[in-house]
Amino acid sequence: MARYAVGIDLGGTSVKAALVHREHGVVRHTQRRTGAAHGPAHVLDQIADAARELLGALPPGEALAGIGLGSPGVISWDRTTVSRPPNFPKWETVNVAQAIGGMFGVPVTVENDANVAGLGSAFYGAGQPFDSFLMATLGTGVGGAIIYQKRIFRGAHGGAGELGHMTIDYEGPYARSGVAGAIEAYLGIHFLTHHARYRLLTRETVLHEMTGQDLAGLTPKALHEAAVQGDEAAREMLAWAGHKLGAALGSAVNLLDIRKVVVGGGISAAGDFLLDPARAALRRFVMPGLQAGLELVQETLGNEVALLGAARLAFERFEEG
Amino acid sequence: MARYAVGIDLGGTSVKAALVHREHGVVRHTQRRTGAAHGPAHVLDQIADAARELLGALPPGEALAGIGLGSPGVISWDRTTVSRPPNFPKWETVNVAQAIGGMFGVPVTVENDANVAGLGSAFYGAGQPFDSFLMATLGTGVGGAIIYQKRIFRGAHGGAGELGHMTIDYEGPYARSGVAGAIEAYLGIHFLTHHARYRLLTRETVLHEMTGQDLAGLTPKALHEAAVQGDEAAREMLAWAGHKLGAALGSAVNLLDIRKVVVGGGISAAGDFLLDPARAALRRFVMPGLQAGLELVQETLGNEVALLGAARLAFERFEEG
């Protein structure tokens, strides 16, 4: 029984990594700058460097299940290659599993970062009580995962779970994907701050003091802080975003008959200012026959959920031989 | 090896049934009036009567795999009971499998009618080439099914596939489910004819001659016929509907990464007048990374797809023992 695995979260700015004990969770963290601008070889070096440190920290006599890695971009069906991750220049298709696995002689499993967060939530986070649930990750973009019977539902080609690109308004604003009214066009971090800035410019709100002239320094964090202080304008804005999230989640529930939802990622820190309106909308957009047991909860593990999910990939691969 | 099964399609107005040969398809049809107004016991009698006729037609020496039945309403996870089918008065929860199975001493399997149509398409219809696909059934309402790796994807509780209740406009018109902007609020037969009537009332169109004063007799069939005759107004209306269907399907593809779509049911008879605009919209609403292999085809088997799918339920149950 291998009780340890390394989980890696590859992001546009940093490579986060952890040595994970199957029951006790993260036992050691490390981090490197991604340096995506220097190309794939450099990024692989950063990943390898982080992995090397953690492998060196494996307690004597303990076996390693392997390395799991969550990544942006398109992942191949066999979970080895990463294609065209956004904001990684010169990166076409790279066999990350082979490159890293070859260095350390351990199995490496790659999966989409949003799916990895879902898996982490299922085994270590807010998703633990649920056999099946939808995970929405609100970050730079809006990621999603379908956890079905405690496993990642991968669809026909491995790309399932793109909640952020479901439309809630076929004539709505365009997201980066070119999809009109995609939920990311409301809740993606750049879109949300853009909407908020113009919506609140003429309103009385503490955000004017907090974020400088013309709300130029507005962030989701500032919105949340203003809401906590009782600022009505900030609360309205978060409710506006939550409502849209709930509508998209309602569509997903109707399609999948999976009635549990976990929401994580940066903006989810706004908590019930965002999530209560999302819950209300979810209930309105789910058809009556599928309402029983409907539930939306917040993931509170933060970034750690991605590391734990990545390690879980390695444990599963080890178990399956 | 049991080469025959009985497939039954329970509808609001008629009970359709067929004796199905595993390879050759339907070998004998029959039909009864449902008489839903007379209550569940009467409906069960009608089903039994149809089944009895077909069981009597089983060639000597041949074994029956069982009976499969597609039904509106909510189906239990164990595929035995039907709860609250719309337009069936006095019907709460009825164990159809037990009632019919007990009469004939054969296993009976019940499944949602849209899922059954998907299964029929997968094994006998336009879905045959696809391992996984989405099925949209355009009838009184808009039904849907997810066929994943040649099986019905049932979700966590058995109710998955409700494409018709996905929203494409969170502030749009209400469908019967109370969901705003649900695709059924545009393509459901009553909604579509209502939209069409008002949209075309002031237009020059052959529909005025075809459907009487104020377009009171407008039907999807009339729309289709007018479109075939070259009527621009009718073609516009079908394109309007197809565009909305494509947007909803795009959301479903993004969520599931299942890139094949089969469209069946009454209104789908309008063929490419409806489906070409649906294809164009589908492509616009699917994110770039999931576009490869995207395909939307028409189911041409008509009602038979439901009977074949119902029989297939019985074959699968028999194989699984």
Give an account of the 3D structure.
The structure is a homodimer. Chain A has about 325 residues and is α/β, with parallel strands linked by helices. In chain A, about 40% of the residues lie in helices and about 20% in strands. In chain A, the strands form three sheets. Chain A has a five-stranded mixed beta sheet with strand order 3-2-1-4-8, sandwiched between helices. In chain A, strands 11-10-9-12-13 form a five-stranded mixed beta sheet, with helices on both faces. In chain A, strand 5 and strand 6 form a beta hairpin. In chain A, helix 3 (about 115-125) crosses helix 10 (about 305-320). The model of chain A has no long low-confidence stretch (mean pLDDT about 95). At the A-B interface, strand 10, helix 8 and helix 9 of A face strand 10, helix 8 and helix 9 of B.
Could you give the order of the helices and strands of chain A?
EEEHEEEEHEHEEEHHHHHEHEH
What does the largest sheet of chain A look like? 5 strands, mixed
Helix count from the secondary structure assignment of chain A: 10
Oligomer: homodimer
Distance between the termini of chain A: 12 Å
Number of strands of chain A: 13
In order across it, which strands form the biggest sheet of chain A?
A: 3-2-1-4-8
Give the rounded overall mean pLDDT of chain A: 95
The largest interface is: A-B, 53 and 52 residues
Q: Given the C-alpha coordinates, what overall shape of chain A results? A: globular
Low-pLDDT ranges of chain A: none
- What proportion of the residues of chain A is helical, as a percent range? 25-40%
Portion in beta strands of chain A: 15-25%
Structural class of chain A: alpha/beta
Cα Rg of chain A:
20 Å
